[in-house]
Design goal:
single chain, alpha+beta, Rossmann fold, Dna Ligase, domain 1, D-amino Acid Aminotransferase, Chain A, domain 1, 4 domains, five-stranded parallel beta sheet, 15 helices, binds adenosine-5'-diphosphate, binds magnesium ion
């Protein structure tokens, strides 16, 4: 069996690592991969958004299964194109990938299917949006409101605005100065929700749907959830805030209504469905849907999963999710991202990374290092930094506290110039113990 993984981050390294555990002993390819993935899979020199090139490669190599990491190729219709050639690929078709690629579309779907989420208005002209911010009362309260660019903006298109001034600035940035390009042609203005956030990843075949372990990520750059938003500085799983009762509510009020509602419209959502949820006093409300594995949530979740990932992907592709019974390790996991100094702003790359083996030795069993922005050095084996988020260190423990102690012990051994990371990953989970 040959499996192709598309992408180059920590998420993809975790997927490759999980595939390596498969009893089917697949030959694993990854396009374009990174320094760590290069040791675990055969690197394919094609970018993740080169759909034509990837399809040609998959056909030529007779790839049996393709797993897509990032959203861009899904939004670009990679699943439709592979399917048309009879190739098995895990993920939603282009029309359904729009749930992530267009926030306005996603909100309209939620409204149509009665899925709880923040009150909102959609605007395609800056004048009307500015007019709206001048109203005396916007939603349930006056301010804050949330201004969101409609399209994909690499996690930077959402601004929480404390007052009218900030809202108007955000609108002008997106719609007049076009700082996110075409992604800001349309915007959504939303009611601001209060509560704790959690992520639920589920796998669907279009009819049936099964949830993976809950998780929580840490978007802000610095300790105490301060500083600018990033791609994610760490995650843990499961999230204690998602109690069994809450989990049932999320499945009954969000996940199944979406999958079933779409199916009634003859739209069969396949692949990973990621729901970003705000747990408000009134219950769970959707912040957004993503149509692929989360990064870094996946790095925390997959080491806990005992079930074969290949089985799970084929169950989705072949409409057999109802036959799957997921098995989990009775453990908790914490994932910490080691980033380049300056990230998410400007940073330098090309620094040598040391201590990776010592780190694994120090932490003992159940610790994993998933590479993100790294590159194998030409000459001799070692890796250098090659991006903003460089490494993900993940440890399992009997509970979050133990996992967290272990992961930071491992990190103490790892060094590269300018290395920066959060020392408080999991702090909200510890509060629940
Ligand atoms: N309506 C809202 N109320 C409160 N916070 C929000 C709201 N919408 C988004 N956020 C915050 O902004 C973050 C990013 O928003 P999200 O919709 O997930 O977009 P993206 O992940 O594409 O940047 C969320 O994780 C959440 O912290
Ligand atoms: Mg999000």
């Amino acid at each position: 069996m040959k499996v192709l993984v598309i992408g180059s981050g920590g998420r993809e390294h975790a997927i490759v690592w999980k595939l390596k555990q498969s009893p089917r002993f697949p030959k694993i390819y990854c396009a374009p991969g990174n320094g760590g993935i290069a040791r675990d899979a055969q690197i394919v020199n094609l970018e993740a958004d080169d759909i034509k090139g990837l399809l040609a490669f998959a056909l030529q190599e007779k790839i049996d299964l393709t797993i897509v990491g990032p959203e861009a190729p899904l939004a670009g219709g990679i699943v439709d194109k592979f399917m048309r050639k009879g190739m098995d690929i895990f993920g939603p078709v282009k029309e359904l990938a729009n749930l992530e690629a267009s926030k306005a579309h996603s909100k309209e779907v939620m409204r149509r299917l009665n899925i709880p989420s923040a009150a909102f208005e959609i605007f395609d002209s800056p004048d009307k949006a500015i007019d709206f911010t001048n109203r005396s009362r916007l939603f349930a309260a006056h301010y804050p409101v949330v201004v969101k660019a409609d399209g994909l903006a690499a996690g930077k298109g959402v601004v929480i605005c404390k007052n009218r001034n900030e809202a108007q600035l955000a609108i002008e940035d997106m719609m007049v100065r076009k700082v996110f390009g075409r992604a800001g042609e349309k915007i959504v203005i939303e009611e601001h929700l209060e509560g704790e956030e959690a992520s639920i990843l589920a796998v669907s075949d279009g009819i049936n749907v099964i949830a993976l372990a809950s998780s929580q990520d840490h978007k802000r750059a610095f300790d105490g959830d301060k500083g600018p938003n990033t791609g994610g500085m760490g995650a843990y799983s499961p999230a204690p805030v998602v109690t069994e009762v809450m989990h049932t509510r999320i499945m009954d009020e969000v996940i199944r209504p979406l999958i079933n509602g779409l199916a009634k419209e003859n739209k069969f959502y396949k692949g990973i469905l990621y729901a970003g949820i705000m747990l408000t006093k009134e219950g769970p409300k959707v912040l957004e849907f993503n149509v692929r594995f989360g990064d870094p949530e996946t790095q925390a979740i997959l080491p806990l999963l005992k079930t074969d990932l290949i089985d799970l992907c084929f169950a989705s592709i072949e409409d057999r999710i109802d036959e799957i019974k997921l098995e989990w390790k009775d453990k908790a996991s914490v994932c910490v991202v080691l980033a380049s100094g300056g990230y998410p702003g400007e940073y330098k790359m090309g620094f040598e990374i040391s201590g990776l083996e010592d780190a694994l030795w120090e932490a003992g069993s159940d610790t994993h290092i998933f590479h993100a922005g790294t590159k194998l050095q030409e000459a001799g084996g070692g890796c250098v930094t090659d991006g903003g988020r460089v490494l993900n260190v993940v440890s399992l423990g009997d509970d979050i506290r133990q996992a967290r102690d272990k992961v930071y012990k491992a990190i103490n051994k790892i060094k590269f110039e300018g290395m920066q990371y959060r020392k408080d990953i999991g702090h909200r989970a510890l509060k629940h113990h």
